[in-house]
Design brief:
The complex is a heterodimer of chains A (331) and B (254). By secondary structure, chain A is of the alpha/beta class. Helix content of chain A is 37%, strand content 27%. Chain A contains 12 helices and 14 strands. In chain A, the strands form 3 sheets. Chain A has a 6-stranded mixed β-sheet with strand order 6-7-8-3-9-10, with helices on both faces. A 4-stranded antiparallel β-sheet of chain A has the order 2-1-4-5. In chain A, helix 3 crosses helix 4. The radius of gyration of chain A is 24 Å and the shape is elongated. Chain A starts with a strand and ends with a helix. Chain B has 254 residues and is mostly helical. Helices cover 77% and strands 0% of the residues of chain B. Chain B has 10 helices and no strands. Classes of the chains: A alpha/beta (331), B mainly alpha (254).
Chain lengths: 331, 254
């Protein structure tokens, strides 16, 4: 019990009869970098709002660092840091003044404040711009300052609601590095929400996938992807397609195969070790393979497996392999 | 409910930083009272508005205009609070372990400071234009009245803002509420000239006693006993500000 940072017990929240969060039970250990992954409206932000005492749950309980979020909300607020999805900075103040204002709200003394402000500025690489008005900051810098502010009070748990929403790919990656560093260097528990599966995959040590207010799967990204149990190998074949297909169909490690327009798609247990065999088979059948590609499962596939829907509600369907997937999985 | 002086002062400091960077707000504070006073006071100077009071109109008007300035200055407190709420900054404050009482007192300290600055600016403008001060101690004497008037109407603004939580409607509601309060307060001419019905409204209007208190402090003349002015203002300040703070405390501001 002692190494639990957060524990949710049948937590529910409904807005006018709509269940935004539906009976969620979850435990997050100290020092974890935990991700809540799900499409918009899955209830991720609502969970964060409840855990940060901004809204009260309809039913159920939750504790943060052992403090009850309803009864001890002051104690909860003093041991957490929050960076909201639409984090607001005071644009008419400098970065340093923003940090100082918040540090004072946490009741830190002047000496402690000065030291801590330097630390977080250093950590998020904002020292050069510390005395510049926030309205002159770029989007990525503002996000970094918001994260720095969330960290100003040495929180034991930091909540990041969609920390990279609306940022370009490069800035997003740099934010990931900072988040990772905060987790490693300060050994703080970090809980983030995201609807970017790459973000959950690459950044989080453990992920809970949410849909319609429920947690549908929770584990490390790797293990979640392993539940898909198969990789996809795609071969472009010039001729000899039929005979290759026939001989491949006798292998037990190929769980499904499909061919169209000179393209063979195989579902195999482990792509890396099966490719040589596939190539040998192609040579023996005198088939000309022009290219081989491997598609490893993503958290997207995990989401698809559990919900039958894509996380980005259709955006991803332009990818032909994904389309095939859906057909295969269909009843 | 803990009160933290640190939090109150940090909120105050934040707003003073804003003020020091908004040149237009400083100019507005400096010139708007001067314009109003010059327009009304100097315009009516040649007309004997108050034949029975043996007093020039500018002297009579200055405390009234101070009351009006204090009223609008204090109402901007709630406007700024709502603005912070709309921008999402209030949420960032609320998620810290800060008590709501500290937040509201921090905001009130800003409002009182603004009211003091603007009220005294108006007084200075009046003195330059020829208002006759009864004694130099009057300036000190009027300070408690300025603070009481400001706090009362900061409280009223908070009550209104707790029901109307967006800045635009708040501005409408505010002007709807402010004009009768100003007009039925004896700010422009004595309450006893009002028709009986409106005079009754004036007697239940706290600003009437506030302006009368200011007039007593600065000019040495008043319609009521100054002790009554002070008493009424203290009671209305405690009641209004208490209710406003309570409405903030019970929430719905996130």
């Amino acid at each position: 019990m002692d190494n639990l940072a957060i524990s949710l017990n049948n937590l529910c929240k409904s807005f006018q009869g709509v269940h935004a969060v539906d009976n969620v039970t979850l435990e997050i250990e100290k020092g974890e970098l935990f991700g809540l992954l799900g499409p918009n409206g899955a209830g991720k932000s609502t969970i964060i709002k409840m855990l940060t005492t901004m809204i009260r749950p309809s039913s159920g309980t939750a504790t943060v660092m052992g403090h009850d979020i309803i009864k001890d909300n002051d104690a909860v607020r003093s041991c957490i840091g929050v960076v909201f999805q639409d984090a607001t900075l005071d644009k008419k103040l400098t970065g340093r003044e923003n940090l100082d204002f918040h540090a004072q709200l946490f009741g830190l003394d002047r000496d402690v404040r000065c030291k801590r402000i330097e630390e977080v500025l250093e950590l998020l690489n904002l020292r050069d711009k510390a005395d510049v008005m926030v309205e002159k900051y770029s989007g990525g810098m503002q996000r970094r300052l918001a994260i720095a502010r969330g960290f100003i009070n040495h929180p034991q748990v930091l909540f990041l609601d969609e920390p990279t929403l609306g940022l370009d790919a490069q800035t997003r990656r740099s934010i990931w590095e900072y988040i990772n560093e905060l987790n490693m260097r300060e050994e703080k528990t970090i809980v983030l929400t995201t609807h970017y599966m790459e973000e959950a995959d690459q950044l989080c040590k453990r992920v809970a996938i949410m849909d319609h207010g429920k947690i549908i799967a929770s584990d490390s990204p790797q293990r979640l992807k392993n539940t898909i149990g198969s990789d996809t190998i795609i071969l472009q074949v010039k001729h000899g397609c039929e005979s290759l297909l026939e001989s491949l169909s006798s292998f037990s490690w190929i769980t499904a195969l499909d061919a169209s327009d000179g393209q063979i798609t195989l579902l195999v247990d482990d792509a890396q070790s099966r490719i040589p065999q596939v190539i040998i088979e192609a040579c023996m059948n005198r088939a000309t393979v022009t290219s081989v590609s491997v598609v490893e499962p993503t958290l997207e596939d995990v989401f698809l497996k559990f919900t039958g829907r894509s996380i980005r509600e259709g955006e991803e369907f332009s990818d032909p392999t994904k389309q095939r997937w859906l057909r295969r999985r269909g009843p | 409910m803990r009160l933290s002086f640190n939090v109150v002062s940090s909120i105050w400091k934040r707003d003073m930083l804003h003020l020091s960077r908004q040149k237009s707000r400083i100019l507005y504070y400096l010139f708007s009272p001067v314009f109003l006073l010059a327009f009304l006071g100097l315009g009516f100077r040649r007309i004997d508005v108050l034949p029975e009071m043996n007093m020039d109109y500018l002297s009579y008007l200055t405390p009234g205009m101070m009351g009006m300035t204090l009223l609008t200055a204090s109402n901007s407190t709630s406007f700024l609070l709502l603005w912070d709420r709309e921008m999402g900054f209030l949420k960032e404050i609320m998620v810290t372990p800060t008590s709501r009482l500290s937040i509201i007192l921090g905001r009130a300290s800003v409002g009182i400071t603004n009211a003091l600055i603007q009220g005294l600016m108006l007084l200075i403008a009046g003195l330059i234009m020829g208002m006759k001060l009864s004694g130099i101690s009057g300036i000190l004497l009027c300070l408690p009245f300025i603070i009481l008037i400001a706090s009362t109407f900061i409280g009223m603004g908070l009550i209104i803002a707790s029901f109307i939580k967006d800045t635009q409607s708040f501005n409408l509601a505010q002007s709807f509420a402010l004009y009768p309060i100003i007009f039925f307060s004896g700010a422009f001419y004595p309450v006893d000239r009002f028709p009986a019905f409106i005079a009754t409204l004036a007697y239940i209007n706290p600003l009437t006693y506030g302006v009368d208190g200011l007039r007593f402090s600065l000019l040495g003349v008043s319609s009521f006993n100054p002790a009554l002015d002070l008493g009424v203002m203290t009671v209305s300040c405690v009641a209004m500000f208490g209710l406003g703070a309570y409405r903030f405390e019970v929430g719905g501001w996130e």
